[in-house]
Specification:
Elements: H1 2-20, E1 23-29, H2 42-47, E2 58-63, H3 68-78, H4 87-102, E3 111-117, E4 132-134, E5 139-141, H5 145-154, E6 158-163, E7 179-183, H6 192-200, H7 208-217, E8 228-229, H8 232-245, H9 251-259, H10 270-290, H11 294-333, E9 337-342, E10 345-350, H12 351-367, H13 372-385, H14 388-405, H15 413-438, H16 444-447
Parallel strand pairs: 1-2, 1-3, 3-6, 6-7
Antiparallel strand pairs: 4-5, 7-8, 9-10
């Protein structure tokens, strides 16, 4: 009876402390967008569950700045308390959060969630640990959250960082055994529906780990992106499947990879073979533990189907990617170096340089402020632009650019990458469950209650 009473006292005390813990969520987003009525991040912003009445969260919003539709959405969501997402506002808010921790406004047991939904850049070189994101005026280095993280951990404040930008997998480098980090992408590009579905899953009563897994597999979340989480299971699953997410490049990311000779994995690569070995070993272990007889046979058939789907998706993606690469090679081979004579000097460069020069001088001509030298160069450029050799290069380059931008279901690389993403989801889920069952390490994502 005494033991039961003590247990009840501990339980009531635990609930009481949890009920009085502060929960603060800060949302930064909507930067780096062109002049349009809204932004591509509006849906993610509206899906963010802590904004909802009754969520239990105290929220602050720094969203957009200059897009009328987005401004109306933000004002409606925050009761007119939204501020623009400028770099100055981000720095000021982070400084204020540090002060709140130092003066005890945020104390041990309280929860702080930083969410970023904007455009992201690739990770810079050393010493940058994470990557940078865009604001409405300049880039913001996510490494600036590291000092906040260290301070929060030293005072017992639970911190979570949710980065829904492109290349946000790099932000997992800010995680620790006390701080949870979730990204909407791997090191590759991300897609808005990934962040949106995770934001929609941040429902009261669950935890960050469950919200991430639900959002990653939610209807509408599938795209050629690979959301990640900083749990031990998440890191192991990412390490095993990273080569798959690297094989989902489309659009501008594909253009970057092809122009920089970045290769993608094949079904004969060491990474693929290692994954299949690990996947088979995991399935044998769990299969023997949970299945017998015909049940094991059904499980094996499902495994073979999932492996076959990944194999098929990777091969079809690579075939389509190689076709686009051939178009780039053709364009590059005709992008020759050449010198054009202008009176007593020469203009030397590649065809693409001459095209850029022609376009720049054509704009200058429209202003009526061309000097004699510019007029002479412009005439030389115009003559070159009408040449057969330029037209051959221009046609090849246009064919390549159309192939990169093609989103048709029959030919577009996006849908080939999407099939790779579906196969990755199926395999990632099995790996995550397995590693999660085995892990004995701290899990700050699971203990971060929503």
């Amino acid at each position: 009876m005494l033991i039961k009473s003590l247990a009840l006292v501990v339980f009531v005390t635990s609930v009481s402390m949890s009920a009085h813990a502060k929960k603060v969520a800060v949302f930064f987003g909507g930067g780096g967008e062109p002049s349009t009525p809204g932004t591509i991040f509006d849906e993610t912003y509206m899906a963010f569950q802590p904004f909802n009445a009754g969520s239990g969260w105290s929220t602050k919003s720094y969203f957009n700045g200059g897009h009328p539709t987005s401004e109306r959405i933000a004002d409606a969501m925050t009761g007119g308390k939204n501020k623009p997402m400028t770099a100055a506002n981000m720095n000021a808010e982070i400084a204020q959060l540090k002060d709140s921790i130092l003066n005890g406004t945020l104390k041990s047991g309280d929860q702080l969630m930083i969410t970023v939904a904007t455009h992201g850049l690739r990770k810079g070189g050393t010493p940058q640990r994470s990557h940078s994101v865009t604001t409405t005026d300049q880039d913001f280095n996510m490494d600036k959250l590291l000092e906040l993280r260290n301070l929060a951990e030293s005072k017992g404040v639970k911190l979570a960082i949710l980065d829904f930008s492109c290349h946000s997998g790099a932000t997992l480098n800010l995680a620790s055994d006390k701080t949870c980090v979730i990204s909407a992408a791997s090191d590759n590009v991300g897609y808005n529906n990934g962040g949106e579905m995770i934001a929609k899953s941040l429902a009261k009563g669950t935890n960050l780990e469950k919200a991430f897994l639900k959002g990653r597999n939610r209807d509408g979340s599938l795209s050629p992106g690979a959301p990640q989480i900083s749990t031990d299971a998440g890191k192991q699953a990412y390490a095993a499947t990273k080569f798959i997410s690297d094989s989902m490049s489309t659009g501008t990311a594909l253009d970057h990879d092809l122009r920089n000779n970045v290769s993608c994995a094949t079904t004969s690569s060491p990474s693929y073979k290692r994954l299949m070995r690990d996947f088979n070993a995991i399935d044998r272990e769990t299969g023997l533990m949970h299945y017998a007889g015909v049940g094991l046979g059904i499980r094996q058939a499902k495994l073979e189907y999932e492996k076959a789907q990944l194999d098929k998706a990777l091969k079809e993606y690579l075939q389509a990617r190689n076709e686009i690469a051939r178009k780039l090679i053709k364009a590059n081979n005709s992008n020759n170096e050449k010198c054009l004579a202008v009176t007593n000097y020469q203009l030397c460069g590649r065809f693409e340089n001459f095209e850029a020069g022609f376009l720049a001088l054509r704009q200058l001509e429209a202003t009526g402020r061309m000097d004699a030298k510019s007029k002479a160069e412009y005439e030389v450029y115009k003559k070159f632009i009408n040449s057969q050799e330029y037209r051959a290069w221009s046609q090849s380059n246009e064919e390549y650019e159309r192939a990169v931008a093609d989103t048709s279901r029959d030919r577009g690389l996006y849908w080939k990458a999407n099939a790779v993403a579906q196969a990755e989801r199926d395999i990632y889920n099995k790996l995550y469950d397995h590693y999660s069952d085995k892990s004995k390490k701290p899990n700050p994502c699971r203990s971060f209650q929503l």
